[in-house]
Amino acid sequence: MKKYKWLIIALNLIVLIVFINYSILKKEAILSEGKLVLLELAPVDPRSLMQGDYMRLSYAIAQEGTYMDSIATRGYCVVKLDSVGVAEKVRLQEGKTPVMDDEYLIVYTKSNWSLNIGAESYFFQEGQADKYAAAKYGGLKIDREGNNVLEGLYDENRKRIE
Question: Model-level pTM?
Fold first, then answer.
């Protein structure tokens, strides 16, 4: 019986490692091949804007004309890019279709009080808070399925804050 116990533990460990590596590879593919979309950051409560070494994020398109009781718990925010690459919300929809050629999907989830689009926090090196306080845009890399990864924060001139 002990022999099977170690075999089951080893198999579970292998499955876990494969799953984690698959998830990492998927995110790396989005970062390398995804489309960069800039989302304007919305103001958040200044008492919790900076807490140690991270910044809480909220996006303006998640707050524009959203009626929380009339939308699905999960779905897609359809956006179009303006001439400088900043996303403008077109609509919210439950499925991946319909989508025009110049529109992009971003997966959303709805909580009790807000619409969550993209990462909700950005971690940076301790002592760098002043540099990131001027952030105006969050840069998301998105794939055609609506999956996204926060790539960085950008200033008012759409330059990445390094």
Answer: 0.76
